[in-house]
Amino acid sequence: MDFISILSVFVLACFVGYYVVWSVTPALHTPLMAVTNAISSVIIVGALIAAAAGSVGSAGEASKWLGLLAVVLASINIFGGFAVTARMLAMYKKKAR
Amino acid sequence: MESIAQSPWAALAYLVAGICFILALRGLSSPSTSQRGNRLGMIGMTIAVVTTLVTHFPHEVARTGAFPGSAVFPDPVAAGEIFVAILIGAMIGIVTARRIPMTAMPQLVAAFHSLVGLAAVLVACAAFLNPAAFGIADLVVPLIGAPFESIHPVSRIEMGLGVAIGAITFSGSVIAFLKLNGNMGGKPILLPARHVINLGLLAAILGLVGYFTQDQSPWIFWTVTVLSFAIGFLLIIPIGGADMPVVVSMLNSYSGWAAAAMGFTLHNSAMIITGALVGSSGAILSYIMCKAMNRSFISVIAGGFGGDAGGGAGAAAAVDRPWKRGSAEDAAFLMSQAEQVIIVPGYGMAVAQAQHVLREMADKLKGHGVRVKYAIHPVAGRMPGHMNVLLAEANVPYDEVFELEDINSEFAQTDVAFVIGANDVTNPAAKTDKSSPIYGMPILDVEKAKTVLFIKRSMGGVGYAGVDNEVFYRDNTMMLLADAKKMVEEIVKALD
Q1: Chain B: nearest CA to A96, how far in angstroms?
Q2: Cβ proximity of B98 and A64 under 8 Å
Q3: Residue ranges of A 7-26 with Cβ closer than 8 A to chain B
Q4: For this structure, is B424 an active site residue?
Q5: Is this model's pTM higher than 0.80 or not?
Q6: I want to staple B478 with a disulfide (CB 3.0 to 4.6 A). Which of A6, B326, B417, B431 is the partner?
């Protein structure tokens, strides 16, 4: 992908985000923050690439370990974020009739 | 610029992951679809992770054998390390998510933001140290000297911005966490000339990122990283406790932009879509919070609100004015005779952990044939939607809980407004007193109810904004001075 196509994806996604987030009910704003937190850990993709790269030389070695540490951090966020969101959402119940 | 060899299938998979994330947020438009949304988010994440692992399976280049340097083998050891890393993260994450009390949600979210920020910094550092692995560099063989990997200029900007935003997110979130968790006072810490320092740092960071395109020296990259850590720290320390909902939302937004910046570096559509979603989400939440406090975003960032300034005079005057004190029995009698009671919870309810006994009280009242509703101000609590989660935890049905604009007109036809742990959000000075620091902030019109029951620890204290509340001294107000939980427990007993 060239820079312009990436930029297009980004700008369009910002618009999608704008409309989708305004449609979120205020009662669910805390779960919204928890779940956005979890999905922003998609940065794990970069961490995995770094951790999986063949480590040649000291810079390569350092890069690999930085990647592995980032994998740990992002995993905490992914699992923790989705789990805590699920826990919160399970509490929202309608009036029992 | 065919920098990253990405198979069309992988690109497609990342796109699907991005769409899953959009649908995940879309699901939050109603509590009934929200759980499905969360599951779609998990599916999207699984797709992204699996795709990356398939396309970037760890390999090693043969150093010995018949074809040294040309044959490539899968590397099970490296794959195992990655697996262990994910496992460690999963365990910490799941245990934390299970144990955390709902009242501590703001701290948890701040802590999670800091992890995203730090992960972004680490990925950017890894990309800087080993650009070839990310496919963002060309091998340059100069006439003199050793060959080196020259990172593409566009990638240098993306990487510089990524590391800067990530570092700001990290150090800012750490401070926000410490403040929310009570390890650090909520009072703003004001350095002299802090605006000059911050603007100077910002200019230095942007300048260095610009210069980075010309010169790939490590010192530039590391200086940008260190300066960004510093500015994140300096940005959040002057912001007071009352503005924390804005800060948490703002850091949410930053963590998104950090992911987007790294997505640009890696040409990864899943990261870019997610970054844009999260970035706009945090920005919108910050906007909603600012509007609910009638503050401009700039004034929140500038900091200093919610200290002692201005509060002294109001609090001193407060003691002299007449006010009515009520008992739990009075409150129980008034509410059991009412047709409709609106409960207004605030952060004080969370601190006292009174949400469960509050729901018990509401159940008792319903037994007396009273209609019970809850009114939530957008900035009640320390993060957007915090009160709703706490009430949901106490099994309050969500269709009894109303937002400010949906319920505000009902106070005039309500017999009792029951304020528990809220203060500033009910202060009519916001409508009448132009000199008040909270002037213009939308408030819940509790004073229009026939009777206002106001639970408060003592008459001396003031809200976060440090202003006295006119409602305390109204004829139709009865002050219930006690710990919120104890008072509600006594009311429950009196209702039997």
Answers
A1: 8
A2: no
A3: 9-11, 13-14, 16-18, 20-26
A4: yes
A5: yes
A6: B326
